[in-house]
Design a protein that fits this description.
heterodimer; A: TIM Barrel; 2 domains; 7-stranded parallel sheet; 12 helices; about 15% strand; B: about 140 residues; Alpha-Beta Plaits; two-stranded antiparallel ribbon; globular; RNA binding (chain A); RNase_P_p30 (chain A); Pol/histidinol_Pase-like (chain A); tRNA processing (chain A)
Chain lengths: ~290, ~140
């Protein structure tokens, strides 16, 4: 079971080949008070692919875990850049895809954004410099929220670049206009130790994103937890159902009486429905 | 009589290099960045901005602002990357309503700082010097 500590989370630290640089960032994160961090890898989806598994293997985090002495929980995050809906097919067949704890969609066109909100099997909808200006409408925003997906805002580009700052703020205010800033997750995307800010700073920075101080604080603590729980549900949600099913098969084969058999199978169906209901209830609760 | 409400922002400047900066320079920097991000309206709202306390050694600053417009400063502090000419970041530690509460927080913060760093000093005299320096700066 993967550990999650209650506290502040940063779900977007891009993976760097130079481990020293990454270690510096992680140490800074510990200093300012973060507890859960996701290391991001990007996969650019292409329609013509001959490889059997185009998605890269998640990086091994053992050396980084040793460096942080268990003060941080580290996760693998995959960001899928795509414009074509055929991505769902590729992802569902991939073995490596299942090894990532958190999955984010980065749609590059308006129809892809609608696809991401409607059917994409992931937890976060995100953006980059090229796709920051894509418009989103109310219907799809609420659809995504209902499907336990979250919208990301990145604060590190805001610090570095002026034009990026303007674009991020306008996107944040679009979230506010379209869906009252529900389900907003703030993360850093910091490539440098100097671009990390403390949780207190982030909650006051939230004002220029159109969030209240409370909402901003939630977006790095409570919402991050929701993202994690939703991701775990997506990854493991099917398992208990399958286990129940196996149990039912053995019990029915032992039964001799037909009517008994029928009732027990009904019972089992009921049990199965219950377990599905439980999972969904868990999702809703979270 | 209704009290005129102020807010005191306690912040720490973090940088890799050593640098010197005066309180008036700091106040000017804050004014300039508010002018940059919020324009004339912002600059006019923070007329009574003043740097009330500056700890040279640990770079702790208390800034006074009136209640309401203090959000102009607190929301853009994370965006500023320079103190004087050095690359630095401003970390907000506490926002209080009185200067007394801010000072209380400084004591708490410095105690925590002592707890974390005291282990590095092996020598007794060095340790004493380190503690004396901190206590002196607290008395200001």
């Amino acid at each position: 079971m993967i550990k999650f500590t209650n506290g502040y989370s940063d779900f977007c630290i891009p993976y760097n080949e130079k481990e020293d640089c990454l270690k510096e960032i992680l140490n800074e994160l510990i200093d300012v008070g973060f507890r859960n961090v996701a290391i991001e890898q990007t996969h650019i989806h292409q329609t013509i692919g001959s490889k059997s598994d185009p998605i890269p293997e998640p990086v091994k985090l053992d050396s980084l875990r040793a460096e942080t002495n268990g003060k941080l929980n580290l996760y693998n995050r995959l960001t899928v850049v795509y414009s074509d809906p055929s991505v769902t097919h590729v992802l569902s067949r991939s073995q490596n895809f299942k090894k990532y704890q958190i999955v984010a969609a980065l749609p590059t066109s308006e129809s892809a954004l609608q696809h991401a909100c409607q059917t994409f099997q992931g937890d976060i909808v995100t953006y980059n410099t090229d796709t920051i200006k894509i418009r989103l409408n109310r219907k799809f925003y609420y659809l995504a929220i209902r499907r336990n997906m979250f919208f990301e805002l990145k604060y590190s580009p805001v610090i570095v670049d002026a034009s990026e700052r303007r674009a991020t703020i306008s996107r944040a205010q679009q979230y506010h206009m379209v869906g009252k800033s529900k389900g907003i997750l703030i993360s850093s995307e910091a490539a440098d130790r100097f671009n990390i800010r403390s949780p207190y700073d982030i909650s006051s920075l939230g004002i220029i994103f159109g969030l209240s101080e409370e909402q901003a604080k939630c977006s790095i603590s409570t919402t991050a937890r929701k993202v994690f729980v939703a991701a775990e549900c997506r990854r493991l949600g099917r398992t208990p159902v399958l286990m129940e099913y196996a149990d039912v098969n053995t019990s029915t084969s032992e039964e001799e009486n037909e009517s008994d058999d029928e009732s027990s199978s009904q019972e089992s169906r009921k049990r199965k429905n219950d377990s599905i209901g439980e999972i969904e209830r868990k999702k809703i609760k979270s | 009589m209704v009290r005129f409400k102020n807010r005191y922002i306690l912040l720490q400047i973090k940088s890799d290099k050593k640098f010197k900066i005066s309180t008036s320079e700091l106040a000017g920097d804050f004014r300039r960045s508010i002018q940059k991000y919020y324009g004339d309206f912002g600059a006019a709202s923070v007329q009574n901005l003043a740097v009330k306390y500056f700890n040279e050694k640990h770079k702790l600053v208390i800034v006074r602002l009136s209640h309401g417009p203090h959000k102009f400063l607190s929301s853009i502090l994370p965006l500023s990357t320079k103190a004087g000419k050095e690359l630095a970041k401003f970390q907000i530690l506490y926002i209080g309503a009185t200067i007394r509460q801010c000072k209380k927080y400084i004591v708490k913060h410095q105690n925590e700082f002592i707890r974390q760093t005291i282990g590095a000093f092996k020598d007794d005299s060095e340790r004493k010097e380190f503690l004396d320096n901190i206590y002196k700066s607290l008395d200001q």
